[in-house]
Amino acid sequence: MRAVVQRVSQASVTISDNIVAQIEKGLLVFLGISKIDQVSDISWMADKIVNLRIFEDDQNKMNRSLLDIMGDMIVVSQFTLYGDCRKGRRPSFTDSATPEKAKVLYDNFLSYLKEKYPINVQQGEFQAHMKVNIVNDGPVTLLLDSQKLF
To answer: Which segment of this protein is annotated as the motif Gly-cisPro motif, important for rejection of L-amino acids?
Structure first.
């Protein structure tokens, strides 16, 4: 499971001219599911993201988590995080999970966050063409991988 985590001052997701998710201060998370991911990856990834100390404290040090600031989160499924561009010019997505498997893990990831944490979690629509509007705050962008490849 991979995530691109962006600290945002605001973000929104639009599908067919309808805003389906919108937040102020918080995190926008692009989440990719691989063919080897399992349910056990969900808790590691969700707990890591929510507890990352990437928000500034009173001394302007990144020392506060999403929970500390009671920020919001948007999660957007993005299979392209497993695009392999090492050969040729067209990415290969053979490491991405099948849509059926990815949907189950994506939904379970969202449920885990919503059940465990007292934060506003919103989401994009799985397999939809979305327009994601982001005001990256910092900018702060982090890459996470449940297999700890980076």
So the answer is: 138-139
Q: Is 14 labeled as catalytic in the residue annotation?
A: no
Query: Is residue 126 annotated as part of the catalytic site, yes or no?
Result: no
Judge whether 150 lies within some domain.
no
From the candidates 38, 80, 98, 147, which is the catalytic residue?
A: 80
Does residue 12 form part of some domain?
yes
- Please pick, among 30, 55, 79, 109, the residue that the annotation labels catalytic: 79
pLDDT tens-place string over residues 4-47: 999 999 999 999 999 999 999 999 999 999 999 999 999 999 99
Q: Name residue, tokens 């995190």.
A: 27
